[in-house]
Amino acid sequence: MIKKLCCISLLSVCLLPCLVKAQVSYELPKKWEGKTEGETEGNPYVKNRVAVWRLDSIWPNKPEIKASSFVPMVWEKEKSEWRDLKNQQGGQPSAKVEDGNLSASSRGEWDGNPGQKLTSLAFINPSRGKYAVSGTVDLTVFDGNGEGAQFLVVKKRKGSTKIEVVQAYPVSKTQNHLELDTLVENLMPGDEIRFYLLFKKHHDAASWTIKDLKLTWKGP
Hints:
By secondary structure, this protein is mainly beta.
């Protein structure tokens, strides 16, 4: 009997890390601010000495978006938000995290001002496995109608020059609420899951909010 109990105890100890890790999930910080005007200090967001989240501008984004297009945003103290101060138009791109939710804005191409002004949120994966993505996205188109726009969930391999679209949600001025329900598979440490709004037509701009974003590890 003692021998059986020892075996059961040892089995429980061996299985415990797997059971614990299966419950691991990642959410945005309650508040995410920079420290120095015009600098990236604080971006990426670091927890337990590990970079977990990063806010980027996507530039350049013509003729296509590449891995090298993602550039960390800098802190703008006056508005208390993350910005791209070099490649911007009308205040876009921008991002702010408060109460664990992301508020961002992006702009499509404009006459005389080529290239979209896009905000991207990245989750930097710490371990091998797959993740279930949940949360909501609300969109407010304040210029144009957003026809043909997409909210994208993409995967970027560490060291790769390309990105892979995992899911593309169609959005517009009237189709402006999303329930995220995506499984991102075959991730290795350092790979990224990215979220951003991409326009199809000129003269479109929108603010968008991600609420209750959660990435839950679902095993290797």
